[in-house]
Amino acid sequence: MPDLSRRHAVKLGLSSLAAIGTSRADSPPAPHPFLTPATDFEDVSRGTPKPHTLTGDALLRARLTPETWRLHIEIDPTTTDIVTQKPQIETPVTLDYPALLDLGKKHRVLFLKAMQCLNIANPLGQGLWEGVPLRDVLRLCGPMSNVRRIYFWGYHNDDPKQRFQSSLSYTQVMETPPGELPVFLAYKLNGEPLSLERGGPVRMVVPWAHGFKSIKWLQEIRLTNLYQSNDTYAEKNNDPESHLKTAAYLDPVTLGNPAWVRGLAISGWSGLARVEYWVRPAGPPLADTDPAWDKADWKPCTLAPPPDWLTILPKGIAARDILGFDPTSGQPLTWPLRYSMVSYSAALHGLKPGKYEVRTRTIDLNGYPQPEPRSIQKSGKNGIQMQSFEVT
Ligand SMILES: Nc1nc2c(c(=O)[nH]1)N[C@H]1C(S)=C(S)[C@@H](COP(=O)(O)O)O[C@H]1N2
Ligand SMILES: [Mo]
Fold this sequence. Notes:
It is built from 9 helices and 20 strands. It is α+β, with helices and mostly antiparallel strands. It folds into 2 domains: 6-30 and 244-391, Immunoglobulin-like (Sandwich), CATH 2.60.40; 51-234, Sulfite Oxidase, Chain A, domain 2 (Alpha-Beta Complex), CATH 3.90.420.10. Strand 13 (247-250) and strand 14 form a beta hairpin. The longest helix has 11 residues, at 97-107. The two termini are 36 Å apart. The relative contact order is 0.16. Residues 1-23 have low confidence and may be disordered. The structure holds ligand MTE and molybdenum atom (MO). Residues 44, 117-119, 211-212 line the site of molybdenum atom.
């Protein structure tokens, strides 16, 4: 297909320029890889020593190998009897790794998700996570009554002070609206067993949430009547019920003629309609109240089309098996995919020599530009990013 232009290629959904044998000067730089290799995720872990640095006997004692891993599900013994009836489950449950994989044969879910920390501006990585919905694991406990919240933590050096825990309401765990995604216990990332560094053997994944709900080295689940969130992050002055924010993250500008603005955007809770950029001559730092914001000339960026799933998905995994994809066509039901990242780009033609700054922002499906409608940074960093560059 020698005479296919980049624009045609985009229309056809061909993401690889190499595949069409062109290298025209006005082709955007290649999009970011869709899946982040497990070892390239930015790591956010606490603890001394960090659980993923344990080896040998210490690792076995910590029960962080597939052979030794156990999950305990019980009633929270500290739960107070606020209401007359005590919380109950029929049986406490201890689950081992083969039993979890066995549940996976019947209930497995696959889901593409960006991992992002509420407190760090840039996303940590994007993976194909695989596991068993938490609701199917909790069913092993038999009938429950008077449970209002589920909280969970991982291995933390057997030191309660190091515990990093999170929680969800009973309803969030047990019910999933159509088109939404269940909380699940992940045992694979990008088709491989979940590495120790990424929280293996088993980690919680909460699709809509920031990273602090996705507890690594998961070992304990407690069912409680207490209704408050008792997340470690809640105690640190964060919004414990925040959802992933729709926001654009900006790479350094690729200089050349044209110059390229590019980066990654997360499609969060409120969806992603488009990404826009704004170029202006470099100046002193722009205050949030500067009148220039009202006159800003925002222009559209182009979103990368869906990648060739056959090429990027791990062997043996079909796109139609992933939540959010059409089971017949194997194409995403929406693009971009919710809770995942998409590459964007825009060509800057004909800029006169000089110093510039560029900003990018998202517009969500309600028409709100970033950082609206919720710009409180303790509910997730979604400030507008800026890069400076010079045209010579
Ligand atoms: N057990 C445990 N789980 C944890 C954490 C932790 O410190 N300990 N940090 C959380 C936070 S705040 C984030 S942002 C994500 C980061 O996931 P990653 O290290 O796989 O990128 O892990 C979450 N899960
Ligand atoms: Mo985080």
